[in-house]
Fold this sequence. Notes:
alpha+beta, L,D-transpeptidase catalytic domain-like, 8-stranded mixed sheet, 4 helices, 8 strands, 25% helix, 23% strand
Amino acid sequence: MPDSLRGVCRYIAPPALAFALAVGLLCSLCAPTSTSAAPAVAKADSILILKKDHLLELMAGGKVIRTYHVALGQGGLAPKQREGDGRTPEGHYTIDARYAESHYHKAFHISYPNSEDKRRAAKLGVSPGGAVMIHGLPNGKGYIGSAHRMYDWTLGCVALTDEEIDQLWSMVPVGTPVEIRP
């Protein structure tokens, strides 16, 4: 090591660490570069949400490829009955839109209400509501991270951390079936 670098390394780190850093730098400069593409991200062919367990499972070929802990609607675990009840619906839906720009760090729109939801709400004489999403944290609140799961806080949506919704973003296309179970 040249004397000019030896003095700098002594003040920055112990000599053994400085030597390891220098060797690592030289090896990285001499290492061959890879031209192969990064491994493809698996695409989910369905989503299963288990409300009681607060889980979202990404499925491919009938197998779970990822599992996430989620926060749900603040109205409790009963099925959504009407607009404004704060509950997460139950049933079979589809991801029918993706929003990179929303009040949350990315959002997937779920096709709620389905025909059964509309029928039930009509029988009760109420609006079934809408705008049920799978989304990240409110914009600017990503620092909350997994602590958001300490209680159910959404208005009927399914919430993940920003990092988790970013993972879903690359794996879940529009048209993906969603089943929400009790």
